[in-house]
Write a structure and sequence with these properties.
The complex is a heterodimer of chains A (384) and B (370). Helices cover 64% and strands 7% of the residues of chain A. By secondary structure, chain A is of the alpha/beta class. Chain B has two domains: 242 residues, no CATH class; 100 residues, abc type-2 transporter like domain (abc type-2 transporter like fold, 3-Layer(aba) Sandwich). Classes of the chains: A alpha/beta (384), B alpha/beta (370). Chains A and B meet through α2, β4, α6, β5 and α7 of A and α2, α4, β4, α6 and β5 of B.
């Protein structure tokens, strides 16, 4: 078969895929609207965009109960109010009232300054601030404590005195280097990977399985078009869709939420397409096993869950132990996440990430190779 | 009315019988909550492990006995693993920049002298902040190592001057199980969505749905029957989840029947939305994909992982518009705070009203598309 015929066949398969997509309005909406836009908007809404500093506790009504009523406790209130972490401190509650009001939605936490707070500090004794939280709000306790501890770093109980902690633990100052990233920017790498994997796997594996169920795949196989042309045509079609999805996710993140990746768009596109190719290879492999659409969906759901748990979406890989760690290091998508973070957040050049790139490329070749062999065997069985 | 109840019961029994005959669907209904919970257990376990081996490199430019002491403290930390020592600051920083280590600790020249002469000393810590949790753990390890060194060098230093004590109003210890009630809510949503796929779209694909509609059974009875079957399945799923909760040591402080009521209303609302969507989306595969696509952002928006109150303003507005947020809120408050029906009545009302609005629309749309 000549190269021209092969490329012509690839183009035919690709055009056929687009024609099928055009006829399926729901698929267009899910694949190109709901997945990229809804996911990015949800992330932006939840994390407040990439530009501004967002503190989860800033707007929450939190009672400040001052049982000490001294200069030191007054200065603590000032320090908390001006920290940006507690913009809605409510005064006037007694300790009992504050605790009784928690859980009603009027206040979400109560910071109790104990009697003897100033005296204890003056005597260089340890004093305790008690924080009551409505723990039906998951995550609130940690956020309030973390905000308080950070405010206490700069708190001085008397005018003219140095920060409280410099008298003790922070005699050794830790100068922190390394770029800080907003939760939106970190979330963006997750959303991009999630959108690509989610949509691509279904489009390839689901599409092939559906064609098998409908009988059109068998007809395609017995046509003069080669199996390689079929796979490449479908791959090209899906690469175009992923190109659009990457543009949508990053366009929205860039213009609506102020995301500024530390790498050029070409690199982002290259990584996105690599992850897409990896997922497509896996999709072909799954469809080569000959399972139905329903099974494909079940596998897709667990694939995404696996990625959440083991690919560095939520937990950094070095925190996993035992079998979890082994799974993580065997999952090629985890290397995709590593590359996404390394380039988009840290700004490393793509070609410096040789090891993860090599693993992904090897996985793509392996997936496509095995899928090709299995699909070819299936075709021979069909022809016989 | 009698006929309506009889038809509804018939459809319910038929739905359950159909499920029992389909081993894959039945297995999924039972296994799905367990698998989902297992994944989240992996996540929580990773976050609460007693020790980690996060790669950190050290460059001790001081070389004094004090700085060696700090290096000892760092190497014996349970959170980090000192993988390499470098002669220069640049080499150490490069190790983080190239991804070889998550953190680099640089102890500058004069560190030991400064500490011993009671002057301010400093160390430089470079972290790879693209790894959120690991970088925070490295900071914590370095901070506790320096604190420990100070206690060793100067006996006069006591603990941190102001301690913050956290007291949850439920009286529970702050543990890693905060996500469990949210998981119950999410499994209820996913389960109900899956039921609708089984109940309507797959039946449409098999061609049995038009036949069912052409029987004297009213469309309202058909929908009520399918919803009732979901309510039964939801009760089974909820029981299974509550059993897992109890096995993991979670104490359910409130009335367990209220938990069932909340999950039932979440399931009915999800089912109503699913019925509406199924009038437009005929393919079971497409509907399933849409359901999964909708559900993943809900983990964040509907308060399954983190309270919606802690989201940015846009996220809070989105969360407030989603009836599932109220359902998750009700489950959490019953399980954690042990509140009664009056305290969660608004949450339940929102879910009920949502269902009452969607169900007639779904019936109307279904009649139109017949």
């Amino acid at each position: 078969m000549s190269v021209t015929t092969f490329l012509g066949d690839v183009l035919v398969v690709m055009i056929n895929e687009f024609r099928l997509l055009r006829r399926n309005r729901t698929a267009i909406i899910i694949s190109l609207v709901i997945l990229p836009i809804f996911f990015t908007v949800s992330l932006g809404g939840a994390s407040g965009g990439a530009g501004g500093h967002f503190t989860p506790t800033a707007h929450l009504a939190i009672a400040y109960v001052d049982n000490d009523l001294t200069i030191a406790s007054g200065r603590l209130l000032e320090a908390l109010s001006s920290s940006g972490d507690f913009n809605n401190l409510v005064q006037g509650y007694s300790e009992e009232n504050a605790i009784g009001t928690l859980g009603t939605g009027k206040i979400y936490a109560a910071i109790i300054v104990p009697k003897g707070f100033e005296y204890g500090l003056a005597k260089n004794e340890q004093v305790s601030l008690v924080v009551y939280v409505d723990d039906s709000l998951n995550g609130l306790g940690n956020e309030v404590v973390s905000g308080l501890q950070s405010s206490l770093q700069n708190f001085s109980p008397r005018a003219g005195a140095g920060p409280l902690l410099s008298r003790g633990a922070s005699q050794v100052e830790i100068i922190q280097k390394g770029a800080k990233f907003s939760s939106f920017n970190i979330g963006l790498t997750i959303i991009l990977a999630l959108v690509i994997v989610f949509a691509t796997f279904y489009e390839v594996a689901g599409g092939m399985s559906r064609e098998s169920e409908e009988g059109t795949y068998a007809r395609l196989l017995v046509s003069p078009i080669s199996l390689g042309a079929v796979m490449l045509g479908k791959t090209m079609y899906d690469l175009v869709l992923n190109l659009i999805r990457t543009f949508l996710v990053f366009g929205l993140a860039f213009y609506a939420y102020g995301a500024r990746p530390n790498t050029d768009f070409g690199t982002i596109l290259a990584i996105s397409l690599l992850i897409a190719l990896l997922t497509m290879g896996f999709g072909f492999l799954i469809s080569a096993i000959g399972i139905g659409v329903r099974a494909v969906i079940i596998i897709e759901f667990f694939l995404v869950l696996f990625l959440f748990a083991f690919s560095g979406f939520i937990i950094d890989r070095e925190l996993l132990r035992g079998i979890s760690s082994t799974i993580s290091y065997a999952l090629p998508w985890a290397y995709g996440m590593e590359i996404l973070r390394g380039t988009i957040l840290i700004g490393r050049p793509l070609l410096t990430l040789i090891a993860p790139l090599g693993f992904i490329v090897a996985s793509i070749i392996a997936f496509y190779g095995i899928a090709y062999v299995l699909l070819r065997l299936g075709r021979e069985r069909l022809v016989r | 009315m009698n006929r309506f109840a009889r038809d509804t019961t018939t459809v319910t029994v038929k739905e359950l019988r159909q499920l029992i005959r389909d081993p894959l669907s039945l297995a999924l209904t039972i296994m799905f909550p367990i698998l989902l919970i297992q994944i989240f257990v992996v996540i929580v376990t990773a976050f609460s492990a007693p020790s980690y081996s996060i790669a950190v490199v050290v460059s001790d430019l001081d070389g004094s006995s004090t700085s060696k002491n700090l290096v000892d403290k760092l190497t014996s930390s349970r959170l980090i693993k000192v993988t390499q020592f470098f002669q220069t600051e640049e080499q150490a920083l490069h190790a983080v920049e190239s991804g070889a280590a998550t953190g680099a600790v640089i102890i500058p020249k004069g560190f030991g002298d400064a500490l011993l002469s009671n002057r301010q000393a400093f160390v430089i810590l470079q972290t790879d902040n693209s790894k959120i949790t690991s970088s925070a753990l490295v900071q914590s390890a370095v901070s506790s190592s320096t604190q420990s060194l100070l206690e060793l060098v100067s006996a006069r230093l006591g603990p941190a001057p102001v301690e913050v004590i956290l007291r949850p109003i439920s009286g529970r210890p702050p543990t890693g199980d905060t996500f469990l009630p949210g998981m119950l809510g999410m499994i209820t949503i996913l389960g109900a969505f899956d039921d609708i796929v089984n109940a309507i779209t797959r039946e449409r694909e098999r061609g049995t749905f038009p036949r069912l509609v052409l029987t004297p059974t009213s469309i309202l009875s058909i929908y009520s029957g399918k919803i009732s079957a979901t309510v039964v399945l939801n009760a089974i799923r909820t029981t299974l989840m509550l059993a897992i909760f109890v096995l993991t040591g979670l104490v359910i402080r409130g009335n367990v029947l209220l938990v069932y009521l909340a999950t039932t209303l979440i399931a009915v609302f999800t089912m109503s939305l699913g019925l509406m969507l199924s009038t437009k989306i005929r393919s079971s595969a497409t509907l399933t994909i849409l359901e999964i696509a909708i559900t993943f952002p809900l983990f964040q928006l509907a308060g399954a992982i983190q309270a919606p109150e802690l989201l940015a303003s846009g996220g809070r507005a989105l969360a407030a518009m989603l009836p599932w947020t109220y359902g998750n809120d009700a489950i959490r408050r019953v399980i954690y705070l042990g509140v009664g029906l009056d305290a969660i009545s608004i949450d339940l009302l929102v879910l009920l009203l949502g269902s009452l609005v969607l169900l007639p629309i779904a019936t109307l749309l279904s009649k139109r598309t017949m």
